[in-house]
């Protein structure tokens, strides 16, 4: 979509929103990031997957990549209905080698693959270098990160544990990890926010999501825009 049409549609949809709602959307846009992405590898429980997305969305993470080797990704009822509406969930239904394909896709976009692992050589989230964008991989509840994911990863992180229990629940581990990394990113990384063109795209998307039947309105607005050009 060209910039003029985007601006026109944003103005038109914005006429239906309160100033309070538009200010809130601007606040969210200012805190949104594409510097950190999340990869969910074979999460078994829909409630865990959705709770992870909810935590990430609250912290400003926009993109989630789903690996389905054995377990099909499903939305759990009532866990992240609000969150899933505002983020991008990327699935790869035609992939024969999902883990390798997702990692290849992310690396081609400049992301460093970081897997969560109890490996003693892994660093804490606070010590992870943020010298380039990162994709955090969360493994499934039973087996954790797959062997393939570990072999293809660029970095390993682990959370400290000081009790008798062997591991955190995956959604809890995700929340702790995301908070640590987002806090460090906001303090030490320049240009972690959306650029202005990306903000404009999401501003329009989110304005539309605030309305019923936005596609019907958009068709009408596009005709009005085109009539101005003739």
CATH-wise, what's the superfamily of the domain at 33-188? SPOUT methyltransferase, trefoil knot domain
Report the C-alpha radius of gyration, rounded.
20 Å
In the sheet with the most strands, the strands line up as: 3-2-1-5-4-6
Q: Span between N and C termini?
A: 19 Å
Determine and state the CATH class of the domain at 33-188. Answer: Alpha Beta
Q: What is the CATH topology assignment of the domain at 33-188? A: Alpha/beta knot
Derived structural class: alpha/beta
Low-confidence stretches: none
Helix content: 40-55%
Given the structure, what is the number of helices?
Answer: 9
How many E-type strands? 6
Characterize the overall form. Answer: elongated
| CATH architecture verdict of the domain at 33-188 | 3-Layer(aba) Sandwich
Order of helices and strands: HHEHEHEHEEHEHHH
Provide a concise account of the structure shown.
This protein is an alpha/beta fold. It has helices spanning 3-14, 19-30, 46-58, 81-84, 98-108, 147-152, 170-188, 196-209, 214-229; strands spanning 36-41, 63-67, 88-91, 112-116, 134-138, 155-157.
């Amino acid at each position: 979509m060209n910039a003029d049409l985007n601006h026109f549609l944003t103005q038109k949809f914005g006429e239906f929103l309160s100033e309070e709602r538009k200010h809130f959307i601007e606040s969210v846009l200012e805190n949104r990031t594409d510097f950190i992405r999340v990869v969910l590898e074979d999460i078994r429980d829909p409630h865990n997957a959705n709770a992870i997305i909810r935590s990430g969305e609250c912290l400003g993470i926009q993109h989630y990549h789903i690996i389905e080797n054995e377990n099909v990704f499903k939305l759990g009822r009532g866990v992240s209905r609000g969150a899933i509406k505002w983020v991008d969930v990327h699935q790869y239904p035609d992939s024969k080698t999902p883990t390798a394909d997702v990692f290849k896709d992310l690396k081609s976009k400049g992301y460093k693959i970081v897997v969560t692992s109890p490996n003693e050589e892994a660093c804490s989230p606070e010590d992870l270098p943020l010298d380039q964008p990162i994709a955090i991989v969360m493994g499934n509840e039973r087996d954790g990160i797959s062997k393939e994911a570990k072999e293809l990863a660029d970095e390993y992180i682990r959370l400290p544990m000081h009790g008798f229990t062997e591991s955190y629940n995956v959604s809890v581990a995700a929340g702790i990890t995301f908070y640590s990394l987002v806090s460090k990113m906001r303090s030490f990384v320049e240009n972690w926010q959306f650029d202005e063109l990306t903000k404009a795209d999401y501003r329009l998307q989110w304005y539309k999501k605030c309305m019923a039947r936005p596609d019907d309105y958009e068709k009408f607005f596009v005709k009005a825009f085109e009539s101005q050009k003739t």
